[in-house]
Write a structure and sequence with these properties.
Length: 34
């Protein structure tokens, strides 16, 4: 079902950058709590 959605492709292309941003924020939070 997901493969049939063109918009999902755009989301997947944006995901890597989004994932990096989220992981970076999470790391900052973990470091800040120490």
């Amino acid at each position: 079902m997901i493969k049939n959605i063109p918009k999902h492709d755009m989301i997947l292309k944006r995901l890597p950058a989004f994932e990096k941003a989220v992981s970076r924020v999470l790391l900052d939070i973990k470091i800040g709590r120490r």
